[in-house]
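In response to a reviewer's request, we include the raw inputs and outputs for one of the modeled complexes. The two entities were modeled together in a single run.
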Amino acid sequence: MQSTVDFWYEFASTYSFLAAERIEALAAERDVAVRWRPFLLGAIFKAQGHETTPFNTYPVKGRYMWRDMERWCERLGLPLVRPDPFPQNSLVAARVALALPEDARAAFSKAVFRAEFCEGRPISDPAVIADAVRQTGFELETAVTAAQTDLVKHALRKETEEAQRLGLFGAPTIVTGDGELFWGNDRLEEALDWARGRP
Amino acid sequence: MQSTVDFWYEFASTYSFLAAERIEALAAERDVAVRWRPFLLGAIFKAQGHETTPFNTYPVKGRYMWRDMERWCERLGLPLVRPDPFPQNSLVAARVALALPEDARAAFSKAVFRAEFCEGRPISDPAVIADAVRQTGFELETAVTAAQTDLVKHALRKETEEAQRLGLFGAPTIVTGDGELFWGNDRLEEALDWARGRP
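The model returned the following C-alpha cells for the whole complex.
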C-alpha cells in the first residue's frame, strides 16, 4: 500500500516555498503520496508568545535565512525577490487553498508561492489569488466565494488547531502516517524515506 | 589546493554532537579539511536576550528535538542518554579543547560528546574531562593546567567573539573559506559540497 504524508505549510514561509517546489518530485521517486495542508503558523507563534517570525525578531538569523534562500533558489534555478512586507499576510491564500478541491491545492499553492517569492507580489492581493486560481483550471468566482464562507474559515481554524495539537512549531513540517514529525525543507528527503514502505 | 572549513561547535549542543560524529568521514570523502572550533553559544544567546536554549524555552520545540535525536542516534548506532541538567555547563570542556593542540581537538571533543549524550555524564566533572583527554594521548595535567591560564580563557573569549562577528546564532555552524555559513547538523553535506574545490 502506498504511504501518505501530510505536508503542512504556511504561505508566508520562505522554506515552505522551497518545500512546495521540491516535494512532488521527491515523493514520486519514493512512491509516497502527499496531502497538502496549509495552516496559519502565525497563530501558533502568537500562542508561544512570539509577535512575528524569529527571522525578524533576530536579525542575525534573518540575514542567514535570506542568504540561505539565495543559495537554494540559485540551485533550483528560481529568481528570489523578497516580499515587502515580510512576512506576508497569508490568511486569504490559506482559505482559498482549503476551498479548492484537494487535487487543485498543489498547483494553486505553488503559483501563490512563486508570485510571492519569485516576483515579490503581495499574496493578499485579489489579483494574485485570481492568477493562482487560474493555474488550477477551477472557476475563480466559485473558489473565492467558497473561501469567504464560514465553512472554510472554520476548516482553516480546525487545521491550525490540528497542527498545534500535533506539536508543530514551524513550517514546513512533514508528518508521516505513523506520527513522526520532520521540520524543515532540509528534511524532506529524510521524511519521505521514513514514510516509504510504512503505509 | 585542499579546501578548509571551520566547524564551530558548542559542547552543550545536541546537534553539535551529531555533527562531531559525522563530519570527519563526510569531509574525507570530499577531500576537505576541518578546523574544530569550540565556542560558547550561551554567550551569544544571552546577547540576543535568550536566557537558555530555545529547546527549553519552547517545550514543543524541545520535544521535537529529543525525538529527532532519538531517530538520528538510532541511525548512527549510538545510544542516547539525556544529560541532566540540559544544557550542560560547557565552559571547562571548551577551554580544555582550546588548550589542546589542534590535532587532538577532534578526539577530545568526540569523547566529551559521547560521555555527555551516550552516557549522560556531567561534562563539567573533572573525571569526564580527564577521560576525554586520555583519548588524545596528551598528558592530562598539562592540558588541565593550560586550560586554567588566562591565555586560554582569553582565547575562548576571542573565539566566541569571532563566532558572533561572523553571524553565528546556533551550533553547529560550518563556515567555508569564502565566508558562507551553513547552520545545523543537517547541512554538513551541503556545506562540504560547497567547500569542495573552493580553496
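As requested, we also summarize the result in words. Residues 3-195 of chain B form a domain with the Glutaredoxin fold (CATH 3.40.30.10). Chain B touches chain A at residues 48, 58, 60-61, 63-64, 67-68, 71, 167-169, 180-181, 183-184, 186-187, 190, 194 (CB under 8 Å).
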